[in-house]
Amino acid sequence: MSSYRFRRDLDDSAAEVWRPLDRALAHWVRAHGGSAELAAVAAWASLADGLGDAALPLRGEDAGRHGMARLSDAALAALRQQPLVGDGSRRTPFVLDADDRFALWRNHADETAIAACLRQRRSAADPVDGAAVKAAVDALFGGDRTRRVQAQRMAVAGVAGRRLFVLTGGPGTGKTTTVLRMLLLLQRVQPQRLLIQVAAPTGKAAQRLLQSLRQGKMQLSQGEHALGEEWSAALAGIADAEAPTLHRLLGYDPRRNVFTRNRRRPLAADIVVVDEASMVDLALLRALLDALRPQARLILVGDADQLTSVAAGSTLMDLVAALEPQRAAELVRLQHSFRAERELVRVNEAVRSGDAAELDAALAAAPQRALLRPVGDAAVLAAALQQWALQLAGSGIAGDDADAGDAASAALAALRRLSQRQLLCALREDAFGALAANAAIEAQLRRHWQVAAEALWYPGRAVMITRNDYALRLFNGDIGLCLADADGSLRVWFETVDAAGQATARWLAPDRLPLHEGAFAVTVHKSQGSEYAEAAVLLPPDPEQRILSRQLLYTGVSRAKQRLQIWALPSVLAAALARPIRRAGGLAAKLRDGPAPPDQFELF
Ligand SMILES: Nc1ncnc2c1ncn2[C@@H]1O[C@H](COP(=O)(O)OP(=O)(O)OP(=O)(O)O)[C@@H](O)[C@H]1O
User: Where does the UvrD-like helicase C-terminal domain lie (predicted)?
Assistant: First the structure.
């Protein structure tokens, strides 16, 4: 076929939304003998992959995603006959499975490998001394058998003997608290010292996990909740020295785009804990599973209802969707929130389930805690931002309290005040995005504090680190606050935890900071894993805006512990609620279709 012919028949079907990469794939298909129809479907699958879908459903209610026209039965049958398309049993560039899902080979292979690995992990169980586990669980919960800790107890008991465990739950439901007790239990019932590795998809999430584990260990080592002397070896065995990102743990080599930890060079760890697992994409989960020794235990922890990974896949959501209906013992969902105000828990729950009427009722029932502010145009937004900035200006974040003691304590107090209030934006760019909102807030603060126009830094300026710097121990998402020293020199302070597990602050000179940007307004995506006493969630005014989704709204509103503002037009709020992200892919089905291993034992 002439190059003219295949360019022309592609141009006929090419969609405006296709990216250069999608078009290139379409041309590749034509150059390798594929039909024009296959070339178009391949381009759509490539686009869908870029938007997070591991596969493109070609039939059923999910067909026609991203604007692709539905295929007739005859067209579907013709696709199956194409030599470049297989059913997944042998390597072909594209796979069209029995459920009419079309996938790039890479995604199909990742899903298949993950499902097989997880099935194997589920069926491989180690022997467990049930009585010892029961006694340990009682000790770890100080005899607390109330309803609010039932699920936590089930999780701690359930992890014994298992090589895969999934712990999911909303914010403040005690995931980290439970993970610490799981690790203690595993260490306690095992004669030899276990090598425990904790990690997370982002540097910040990894640091947060480490800090929580340190604080939890402290609480269990001394004070009213201290465990007995017999637990001291187990407590000492809980890793709290370092928590790398998953990429670092797996030895990612960006030049070759490979992980150096793999089946041939597996991780030495006996237990690997991954926090914020909702952010783990397909390729990363596959790499992690490849790098685990068969007998090692994998504990995945996260909130399955939050935003998923940027790259293709929704691994935690799929795992939960597959395991929950089976009432699988390797999955526990924590539901009791220990942290947020009850009225906000009701708001979160309404958003999580996408129930608009219940959200209205929950907001109406919590006038002191939650506020819906119809922000729909530039003038209303400017007024809201001005008010927000003035509240910030008066909140003591510039470190102007004399009673706080030494500089680190004063800085810690100011950082805590800063974390009382955070504006979260659905968008980053745009007039309603985080960059513009941050600029507006900073302009107001500068006016209020009479900062010289040429001064980039001033006391009270908050920044967010945007690139991991292991040498400086600063991670993407860390918040720094600029404060003036006694002699007037400016330092940027960060919260940290000292060796004894106590919160403190440390500083860097402004010119030593890794890449950063203003932090008075951040995107909801960036806020994942953080919480604030008060959060305001700003949505763009266009209900059709692609970014709007139920998960985005849930992730945003659930950051608030005491007070919540939603800055959005009611129509936009309704649009977000009505749009759950359902990433298309075959992982949930592949996980479900495998035989469910029998429960090893039931303690509760
Ligand atoms: N069983 C429990 N008894 C008493 N307090 C608890 C219990 N479990 C958790 N908490 C408290 O609830 C708060 C939240 O716990 P934790 O940080 O473990 O939750 P999380 O689900 O990991 O939260 P995040 O949203 O930060 O991921 C903490 O202050 C913790 O001490």
Answer: 519-564
List Cβ neighbours of 528 (8 Å cut-off, separation of 6 or more). 205, 276, 279, 306, 307, 555
Taking a C-beta distance cutoff of 8 angstroms, is the pair 444, 557 a contact? no
Give me ligand 1 centre to Cα 177, in Å. 5
Backbone angles phi, psi at 31, to 5 degrees: -65, -20
For residues 310 and 525, what is the distance between their CA atoms, to the nearest angstrom? 10
Q: What is the dihedral of CA 497, 498, 502, 508, to 10 degrees?
A: -50
Beta-carbon contacts of residue 273 (< 8 Å; ≥ 6 apart): 179, 183, 196, 197, 198, 199, 209, 299, 301
Q: How far is the CA of 25 from the centre of ligand 1 (A)?
A: 47
**Res. 402 pLDDT band, cuts 50 70 90:** low
Annotated binding-site residue? 529: no
- Tens of pLDDT along 22-41? 999 999 999 999 999 999 99
Rounded distance between C-alpha atoms, residue 71 and residue 60, angstroms: 11
Q: How far apart are CA 26 and CA 40, in angstroms?
A: 6
Sequence spans of domains, the chain: 12-103, 124-339, 342-578
Q: Is 176 in the pocket of ligand 1 (CB under 6 A)?
A: yes
From the list 279, 283, 269, 323, the residue with the least C-alpha distance to 301 is 279
Beta-ladder partners of 154: none
Nearest Cα to 284, choosing from 205, 197, 201, 164? 201
Comparing 339 with 482, the larger pLDDT belongs to 482
- CB of 216 sitting under 6 A from ligand 1: no
Q: 9-30 burial string, b = 16+ CB within 10 Å, else e?
A: bbeebbeeebeeebbebbbbbb
Residue in this structure with the two tokens 């729909």, named with its chain if needed: 376
Ligand 1 touching residue 173 (CB < 6 A): yes
Evaluate whether 52 touches 280 at the Cβ level (below 8 Å).
no
Contact of 152 with 174, CB cutoff 8 Å: yes
Contact 285, 318 (CB under 8 A): no
Average pLDDT, the chain: 88
Cβ(336) – ligand 1 distance below 6 Å = no
Residue with CA closest to ligand 1 atom 12: 338
Per DSSP, the three-state class of 11 is helix
CA distance 221 to 501: 11
* pLDDT tens for each residue of 418-474: 989 999 999 999 999 999 999 999 999 999 999 987 889 999 999 999 887 878 888
Taking the CA of residue 179 as reference, the ligand 1 atom at the shortest distance is: 18
Residue 597 confidence (pLDDT) above 50 = no
ipTM rounded to 2 decimals: 0.97
**Closest C-alpha residue for ligand 1 atom 8:** 174
Nearest CA to ligand 1 atom 18: 174
Pocket lining: 339 vs ligand 1, CB cutoff 6 Å: yes
Q: Does 570 count as an annotated binding residue?
A: no
Question: Which numbered atom of ligand 1 lies nearest the CA of 216?
Answer: 31
DSSP 525-542: HHHTT--EEEEEEE--S-
Band the pLDDT of 261: cuts 50, 70, 90: very high
Q: Which of 207, 339, 531 to mutate to test the pocket of ligand 1 (most atoms within 8 A of CB)?
A: 339
